[in-house]
Specification:
The chain has about 280 residues and is α/β, with parallel strands linked by helices. It has a single domain (about 1-285), classed as Luciferase-like domain (TIM Barrel). It contains ten helices and ten strands. Helix 2 (about 65-75) runs parallel beside helix 3 and helix 3 (about 95-105) packs across helix 5. It is globular and about 55 Å long. The chain starts with a strand and ends with a helix.
Amino acid sequence: MRLSLNLFGIPMDRYAPLAVAAERSGYDAVWLSDHLVTPVEYAATYPYSSTGRPGYDGGTPLADVWATLGYLAAATRTIHLATGVYILPLRNPFVTARAAATVQQLSGGRLVFGVGAGWMREEFDAVGESFENRGARMDEIVAIMRRLWSGEPVAHEGTHYRFATVQLSPAAEPPPPVIVGGLTAPALQRAARIGDGWFAPASSLDDAVAARTTIDAERRRLGRDHLPFRIWVRLGNPWSAAERARFRDAGFEDVTVFPKQLVPDGDTAAVAEAMERLAGEVARA
């Protein structure tokens, strides 16, 4: 089982020390969560909570993904740098493609680009993007970015985006894998259809297995089951060895942990120590 660290919800001055500690302890990736803005008032429609409320508010520190990943690329050497997940249809595809290609270049090819369609209508309203067609736009943006990352001249005539021939240089080498997040039916179908992997929200083992089964069946139907595909799961609480073993025995190889799951109120040193201890436990299991 491979471990990853999600830096969500902690002060930004801990990002680099914990990323370095994760790399030293053999973690595979460090993940950043994303929101562009947090409306003060919004409907309780978060799909992965019984209350409809997410685990953050306007005061939760959320860093700009691309600036932070560039910073972490300079602080580390081997660990993957991941977005978990970037709300793709909130942004212009050219801006996102350029930023992702830059991080891929600066990090030596370590970007894992996790993307999602978003769930908060009010956030889309605030930045002037359509909420209703976000899924269709997301599909088109992924196709556009993959062509732009080639470094070759690209023109596009699509449903939502149209542009004459442009070129993005340097190319993103290698093209970053696009990992689709979410547990809804459209998210699972999208992961199977256009994704190089799936990033799960915190979920039970039964839900994770059911989602994987759905994705696998759809990939077979589409003739994509021969392509590489990687799954990251996130365990809820309690974060126990027994629960990890259940996921491992079910065939899940990548699991993501949050600092507050390891040490609820610990400082950077305490979290780093707990991360190292966890890595040892997983290696011995």
